[in-house]
Write a structure and sequence with these properties.
single chain, alpha+beta, 8-stranded mixed beta sheet
């Protein structure tokens, strides 16, 4: 039975560094202080995002803060298994589908693994993210660092803080930032995000972390606009992990149904935007993120030539729901590729920038390991893998 808690880090700096109430930092710090390791999404120098291993408190900041783009997992699942076999306390943090993929890949429970997922809106395309960064750099002053959930103006009215190579810093209200607008409008999410199989009680993680957006209605005394985490414990292991950091938290149990009602993405998939196909069509045509967003979101007020172009493109840019559902059978978790004993499966980006398994039939042994490890029941793997 899932239990719900309203929490925040008692340390003001720890709370400030988190997107919500700073709970992840305490969970990760506890594991690291016990000689363990953490696997979480981090920015690379290029500002692309991938999961990496964290082994010290000094590295922890690299994994904190929201990153609205799909994280590349690479060889993460194999590294996690190696640490678990070595009896290292291990924390894995990811989206619900990444956690489901990891657990299917492992094939058996490990007492030294704590699995934490997120209340996930959906994961944007890495190709779109790269296009956004490229468009930002076109002004001659590339982005050096990005903080997507800056709480200087408050937790509810958070901002993007963009630091450039020149040292210039911009703070833009999230609701006014083009990338955030596209993200919240579901323009460029992974197809599986519109048909997510791991919402609500179908999650596989020990703990779910998210924003407690309804806290002002249920616990107004907690709502100081500095960030409140909604912590959902699905297993006894999850409850034990929360109890272990309780002295560093303000923590109050709350009603699960009421707590999740204001955060629909706990139990519901993202809606499918009818402009999705048009956006990708425009992006592939002009390669400019800002122009593509402007043409999609402001069709009625575009200059004449651009308005005529969009009208001409729209009939051929309707969303093919059935084709999207077929692609949505794969969440890109990499379990199949990591399990393959002959490296016959490679994760390759499609035209939208999302990675899918590609099978080299000449190397495939038809051993079935990829199918056994697929959290989505191998519905996108070819016949040769049976």
């Amino acid at each position: 039975m899932t239990r719900a808690f309203a929490c925040y880090n008692k340390n003001p700096e720890g709370r400030k560094s988190g997107s919500s109430g700073g709970v992840y930092g305490l969970l990760a710090g506890k594991v690291l202080n016990e000689g363990g390791c953490v696997f979480a999404a981090c920015y690379k120098e290029s500002l692309t995002v991938r999961h990496r291993e964290i082994t010290s408190i000094e590295q922890l900041a690299e994994s904190q803060g929201a990153k609205y783009v799909e994280s590349a997992l690479g060889d993460t699942f194999r590294q996690v298994r190696e640490r678990l076999i070595a009896r290292t306390p291990t924390l894995f943090v990811g989206t619900p589908c990444q956690c489901a993929g990891l657990l299917r890949f492992l094939g058996k429970p490990y007492e030294n693994l704590l699995c934490v997922d997120l209340i996930c809106h959906g994961v944007p395309s890495p190709l779109v993210w790269r296009s956004y960064l490229h468009s930002e750099a076109a002004n001659g002053d590339p982005v050096r660092a990005i903080h997507m959930r800056d709480k200087t103006s408050g937790w509810k009215n958070y901002s993007w803080r963009i630091e450039r190579q020149s040292g210039q810093c911009e703070v833009i209200r999230a609701e006014n930032h083009p990338y955030e607008k596209g993200f919240l409008s579901n323009l460029y999410l992974r197809p599986s995000c519109y048909f997510c199989q791991w919402k609500g009680e179908r999650r596989k993680a020990d703990i779910t972390l998210g924003d407690y957006w309804g806290v002002s209605a249920h616990h107004p005394e907690l709502d100081d606009d500095a960030g409140i985490s909604l912590v959902l414990c699905h297993t006894q292991k999850g409850e034990n992990a929360l109890r272990a950091i309780r002295s560093e938290l303000y923590c109050k149990e709350t009603d699960l149904e009421k707590a999740t009602a204001a955060n629909r993405h706990y139990s519901q998939s993202a809606y499918l935007s009818q402009n999705r196909q048009l956006f990708f069509f425009l992006l592939q045509r002009n390669r400019d993120f800002f122009q593509s967003m402007r043409m999609v979101t402001a069709k009625g007020v575009l200059p004449g030539a651009e308005r005529r172009l969009v009208k001409r493109l729209i009939p051929g840019a309707r969303v093919n729901t059935e084709a999207l559902k077929a692609k949505g059978r794969c969440c890109g978790c990499t379990a199949c590729a990591t399990l393959c004993p002959t490296n016959a499966i490679r994760m390759q980006e499609d035209e939208e920038g999302f990675a899918y398994p590609s099978v080299d039939a000449a190397l495939c042994l038809s051993c079935g390991r990829c199918r056994e490890g697929c959290p989505a029941d191998a519905r996108l793997l070819p016949e040769c893998t049976k």
